[in-house]
Amino acid sequence: MFDIDKIRAEFPILKRTVNGKPLVYFDNAATSQTPQVVIDAIVDYYSNYNANIHRGVHTLSQEATDKYEEARLKLQQHFNAKKSHEIIFTSGTTHSINIVATGFSSLLKKGDEVIVSALEHHSNIVPWQMLCERTGAILKVIPMSEEGELLMNEYDVLLSEKTKVVFVNHVSNALGTINPIKEIIDKAHKVGAAVLIDGAQACPHIKPDVQELDADFYVASAHKIYGPTGVGILYGKEEWLNKLPPYQGGGEMIKEVTFEKTTYAGLPHKFEAGTPNICGGIAFGTAIDYANAIGFDVIAKREDELLQYGTEKLLEIEGLRIYGTSANKTAVISFNLDSIHPYDIGTIIDKLGIAVRTGHHCAQPIMDFYKIPGTIRASFSFYNTFEEIDLFVEAVKRAKVMLE
Ligand code: 7TS
């Protein structure tokens, strides 16, 4: 049984008001809200065993190390990585992608090709463009359709023995499209290319199985999966992580340091220089436990119902256009109203307590494709309600009247 009142009571922030109105939080694709168990894990860490890890003989350090490594095991299990050292703690998706894209500098040569999709967040475009600048590799783009789906026939044409890496998101942040990543991975592997999947938007809704997908790299951020900001993961197959050079030098990532030569630690430490976000890593583990206890099937079903309802209600508004109409999408509705600027709608509905994101959503190529400056993006989570959607639709109608 899905008990929405019980679930909402677990998220303290959902009780607050904004501009005198109950908060309606529809910006979940930017960051999800945090349940009390995760907040408790953060408080517990700083109240009871705050210490640096992997280096002290004292009890607190040992306790913190054990909890941090326990979190890594939880993530290994959640993503179904073969080995725990294939899970690297990072500061988030952006950091994870940069580790891989920078690492590939040593593996690519001029004329090699790398493939991105038209549906990416800037985080999964810019680091690879920087890689191309450094190496002389060529960036190719899988185009998209009006519905916001990748044109897989075009992907087939782009792939060749020159292709070295393919990087696509599992779910588009701007449109919600769920991409056919298994097919993308299998086809890339046929030409010997590695694949990085940006799971930032998928992981709040879908439990990915990296072995079944056969992904070479899979990256995600805790703050989109009911965890804290400033922590995420890079999953990489052991053989790939061994091939890539370290991203940052520093403490904890070495085997031996002399002024003549330094040798690097093994996985995962090779990619974890410096003091990490210890508390964040531990709380990420708690967040994953929380989501699994609810169940990703339950989460996806609930969000799908909200998506259907929200889509129907919004489409009743004259002049409203939704961007991203794939049948296979998460609970993201990106839309515009006639020629009204998205920012104006966002500002007015904020006065009514409603949080949405407006703008290009760090996905300017998608906006360019539709020839628009941006959209209003409502993104639902399982803790949202149908009543909140009603309030939101009413608020959009009011804003429309004011702005027309
Ligand atoms: N990739 C995708 C698909 C994303 O949606 C985001 C963040 C990132 C990468 C970067 O994640 P970070 O945790 O490293 O910042 N997306 C959004 C968004 O849609 N609105 O705000 C942040």
Report on the structure:
The structure is a single chain. With 404 residues, the chain is an alpha/beta fold. The chain folds into two domains: 4-25 and 295-403, Aspartate Aminotransferase, domain 1, CATH 3.90.1150; 49-293, Type I PLP-dependent aspartate aminotransferase-like (Major domain) (Aspartate Aminotransferase, domain 2), CATH 3.40.640. The protein has 14 helices and 17 strands. The chain has helices spanning 4-9, 36-49, 59-79, 93-103, 126-135, 152-158, 181-190, 210-213, 238-243, 278-294, 296-315, 342-351, 364-370, 386-403; strands spanning 17-18, 21-22, 24-25, 87-90, 113-117, 138-142, 163-169, 194-198, 217-221, 232-236, 254-257, 262-264, 320-323, 332-337, 354-355, 357-359, 375-379. The strands form five sheets. The protein has a seven-stranded mixed beta sheet, with helices on both faces. A four-stranded antiparallel beta sheet has the order 13-14-17-16, with helices on one face. A two-stranded antiparallel ribbon has the order 1-2. α5 (126-135) links the parallel β5 (113-117) and β6. α2 runs antiparallel to α10 (278-294) and α11 (296-315) runs parallel beside α14. The protein is globular. It starts with a helix and ends with a helix. 47% of the residues are buried.
